[in-house]
Request: fold
Amino acid sequence: MKKIVFLVLAGMLSAGALQAQSGKAFYNSPYKTRNSGSYSASASLLSFGLGAPNKPVESVNYGGWSRTAAPVFYAKYEHGIMDEVGIGGQLGFTGGSYKYNNGNDKLKIIAFHMAVLGYYHFNKLIPVKALDVYAGAGLGFRVRSTSGDTSGYDYSDTNITVPVKVGGRYFFTDAFGAYLEVGWDDMSDANIGVTFRL
Reply:
């Protein structure tokens, strides 16, 4: 996963550098009216991605048990409210299990996450139309449910979360791009996927 994240990030940055607008003209324009075109108040973005590592499964400490964890599946939506500010939400879902005693003992785990986030986009600072770099924070919750535990301890819980994200999107066309995010949301540390402009 680390290699994939590094390759995507390197590709996004190098492609963005190749397509950079004239920096001098961009930075000479007034800040208030400046916009690279990567994001605007009319933006409407739908994203789907996969995240890792699987925090709801890995945070259950079953030493000596065989662990299986699916990636975290994300669905996200964001809408612009200013040329550099957007608001949106994300859903996350994942599952996994721990096995012991040749699979006779098994703990199953599923987790669901929902959050509302505000985003700031750096389109007034980075003069690349195809590259959308942003940071976001919000409020949400995570529900984890476990079943089949033979130890008598229940790892099911519900947590309030304060997700914090930093990410970038590179648009290959006006309507389609790829994204990479890192940060914390109690589900994963990094996620990668595709974005559609609606």
Observations:
- The chain has a mean pLDDT of 88.
- The radius of gyration is 20 Å.
